Structure formats: C-alpha cells, structure tokens
Hints:
mainly alpha; single chain
Amino acid sequence: MKFSDYRVQKQLSVETQRKAMVAQLEAKVQEAQAQISLTKFLLEAGTEFDEVQTEPIWFAYKSNGDIILESPFTERDMRNGIRLQRKQMQQAAENFDEGNSSGDLYETEEGE
Length: 112
C-alpha cells in the first residue's frame, strides 16, 4: 500500500465520520422539535385539565382514536409508594426481629 492510498482512506474516513455527525445532530434537532411540540400540547392541555398544570411528567399517546395523557409519577403515586415502602420495611423489621435474637435490623449511632 502506498502512502497516498493511506491518505485517501484517511480522508474518506474523516468525511464519513463528519457525515455521520451531521446525521446525528439533525436527529437531535428533530427530537428537540418533537419535545417542543409535546410541551406546547401540554401547555394547551393544562388550560383544560388542572392536573396537567401541576404534574411535571406526562406521556401522550393514542388509544382507539383517543388521546391519552398519563403521568407516571403523580404526587399521589409518590405518597402511596412511600406508604407502601414504609409498610414493607416495618414488616421486614418485624420478621427479622422474630427470627434474630442477636441484634437489630437497623443501625444505631454506636454501630457507625
């Protein structure tokens, strides 16, 4: 292989990488435009539905021709999750205490 062949291959490689970068950046622009469209839609939906105004995360999709808005992490969901987690922790602690006479499940200040 001649050095000139290497230079040609290197130039082709750089050109291909740059074209790929342009394609990636154009895809990011399209993604941003889609996010802007969704955000504008949610702003408009918020004028009709109070919950859309107060919950930050929403998914929008169509089902049987209807537009569905769904918030996966409402404040109520988070409160319910915290309650469930506390109950599960309490049950785990009770189960641990029943089967273990040598110590506690939780750390104490002395154990640090």
